[in-house]
Amino acid sequence: MSFNRVLPRAACCLLAVAGLLAGQPGTRQSPRELGIVGNLQAVAPGQVENFRAATRAMDEKRYGECVRLFALVLRDAPEFIPALRRSGLCLAFEGKREEGMARLELAARKQRTPDNLISLAQGLAGRAPHEGTRAEKERALTTAAAANQAFKGKDDPSFALVQARLALELNRAVEFRQATLQLARDYDGLMETHLFLGILANFDGNTEKAKKELEIAKKMGLSPQAADQVMNGRSTMGWGRARRILFATAAWIAGLCLLLVGGKYLAARALQSIETWRSRLW
C-alpha cells in the first residue's frame, strides 16, 4: 500500500496532537526567553513587566489582554521584534487575521530568523475556529520547513513538530517523514516523537514497529484511544470524519497529554525541561 494513499486515511491520528499549536500556560525560564527579556531591558526597561504580563496572557489565550499589553511595549520599543510577532500571533488567533498577519509578515521581513518564520507559519495555519485556508496552510508548511532548516540548535523541537503536524494534515509525505526522522534523531525523549514514528511505521505497513512506538508513546502520556485510532485509521476512517474527531476531542487530548506546558528540552535525563517549548508561541 502506497504511503501517499494511506496518509489522508490515517489523519485521525491528528486528534492525538491537536494541542501542538494550542498552547497551555507555562513557565518562561529558558535561556532564550531570558535573553529576549534582557534585550528589552536594554532598550525599554520600564516595559519588561508589561512584556512578561503580555506573554502570560498569550500563553493563557487571553488574546485581547495580550495585544493591549504588547501595544504598550511597542509604544516604547517599536523595533522590538518579539513583541511585534507575539502580538501578531495573538491577533491572528483571536480572529483578527488581517492585522495579525500584517505584523507577522513585517517581523519576518525585518528579520528572517527561525523564530520569526515559525511564528509566521503558525499564524498562517491559524487556530480553530480561526484557521487559515488550504493555500495559507500550504504556505505555512513551506515556511515551517524553512524555519526548521534554518534552526541549527538541538534544544527546541517546536520547529520539527510544527512541520510534522502541518505535513500530516496536508498529506505531504516527504515533509512529514523528514520532520519525524529529525525528531527521532534529536528528541527521542518526547511523547510526540514516538507518536509520529508510530504513524510513519503504520503508513509504511510496518505494524510491529508502529505498535512498539505507540506503546512507548502511551507510557509517556498518549491516550490508548488515540493509539487505537492511529492503528485502525489507515483502513477504516476517512479524512472528513477524522477532522471531526480531531476538533471534537482536541481540548480533552490537550488536557490529558499536557501538551505545550512550560520548560526547555535538554536531554533524556532532564525531561522536566521539555515543558518550556511546549508552551511557547514565540
Descriptive account of the structure:
The radius of gyration is 18 Å and the shape is elongated. It is built from 15 helices and two strands. The termini are far apart. 50% of the residues are buried. With 282 residues, the chain is mainly α. It has two domains: 108 residues, no CATH class; 107 residues, Alpha Horseshoe (Serine Threonine Protein Phosphatase 5, Tetratricopeptide repeat).
Specify the biggest β-sheet: 2 strands, antiparallel
> What's the arrangement of strands in the largest beta sheet?
1-2
Mean pLDDT: 80
Rg calc: 18 Å
Question: What percentage of amino acids are in beta strands?
Answer: under 5%
Helix content: 55-70%
Shape: elongated
List unreliable stretches of 5+ residues: 1-6, 8-13, 15-26, 235-279
Strand segment count: 2
Distance between the termini: 39 Å
What oligomeric state best describes the polypeptide chains here? Answer: single chain
Count of domain modules: 2
Number of helices: 15
Key words describing this protein structure:
disordered N terminus, Serine Threonine Protein Phosphatase 5, Tetratricopeptide repeat, 2 domains, mainly alpha, elongated, two-stranded antiparallel sheet, 2 strands, 68% helix, 282 residues
Short structural summary:
The protein is an all-alpha fold and 282 residues long. Helix content is 68%, strand content 1%.
Secondary-structure topology with pairs:
Elements: H1 3-9, H2 31-43, H3 48-59, H4 63-76, H5 81-94, H6 97-110, H7 114-125, E1 126-127, E2 130-131, H8 134-150, H9 158-169, H10 173-186, H11 191-203, H12 207-219, H13 224-236, H14 239-257, H15 275-279
Helix pairs in contact: 1-13, 3-4, 4-5, 5-6, 5-7, 6-7, 7-8, 8-9, 9-10, 10-11, 11-12, 11-13
